[in-house]
Amino acid sequence: MNHSIAIILSVYNSEKPDYLHQSLSSLFSQTMKADIYLYIDGGINKSLESVIESFEAEPNFYVVRGEKNKGLAFALNTLIDVALSRGYRYIARMDTDDVSHLNRIEKQFRFMEDRPEIDVLGGYCHEFGSEYALEIKKVPLEHDDLKKYSIIRCPFIHPTVMFRSSVFKDGIRYPLDTQFTEDMALWFLLLEKRYRFHNIPEVLLDYRLNDSTFSRRRGIGKAISEFSVRFKYMFKLKEASFKRCIILIIKFFFHVLPLFLIRYAYKRHR
């Protein structure tokens, strides 16, 4: 067991086996070894089981099974609890359809070791799998810029994130009551507690875009949940302005647009 870093990710029945294989392969090929924890969110098909079985001989691979599908936030919280109980210093995120670059974990580990004031660290990504993909998707780097940016956009590309495990020791977890916006709600909770954010200006992983990516970004449930969380924390974090209120209203209506318009906007206005 590597007590420095635990990588956590979750898989459920509708995911593609070849994507899962690519994702796990990228983690087992890292230049700095870490322990990999995969949560199985409910029953999965034989093809996914076969992929998981192909990695079971790896000594740093741990599988946690959930009897029922309870969603990403529950899955990640379960793995965070496991990681804390086993004394890991860092907890890294990953999604089962993305591909981490080979030195991603090493780069983040060394940065966190050199910068003990940073609690959550992300980076850039390369998008692929869609005509709308960006060669490099960038996010702000410094904490103060990320705090302002978070009111309108997510401050991190979620699967690039590495946490200092201490941020979870006071009970903070992914909220279970914010439908479709668990990661964004977590960033706001951490900002409210004055944890420090940073992104490194390097591409850390290949981020897959497909039709389901766009589908997850639309719908009245997504619109209401995101607007409510952002609006509340805009005032809590003392970042309110008339301009930001208008932008949040525009974003609300964006999420209920037809899918073809969301694709168009995604391509033209990123």
Automatic annotation (TrEMBL):
Domain of life, source organism: Bacteria
Domain Glycosyltransferase 2-like as annotated: residue spans: 7-138
Record keyword Repeat present: no
Assigned keywords, A-Z: Glycosyltransferase, Membrane, Transferase, Transmembrane, Transmembrane helix
Stretches of the chain forming a coiled coil according to its record: none
Top-rank EC class of the record's enzyme: transferase
MF-aspect GO terms: glycosyltransferase activity
EC numbers: 2.4.-.-
Transmembrane segments: 246-266
Family stated for the protein in its record: Belongs to the glycosyltransferase 2 family.
Protein name as annotated: Glycosyltransferase
Source organism of this protein record: Citrobacter portucalensis
Higher taxonomy: Bacteria, Pseudomonadati, Pseudomonadota, Gammaproteobacteria, Enterobacterales
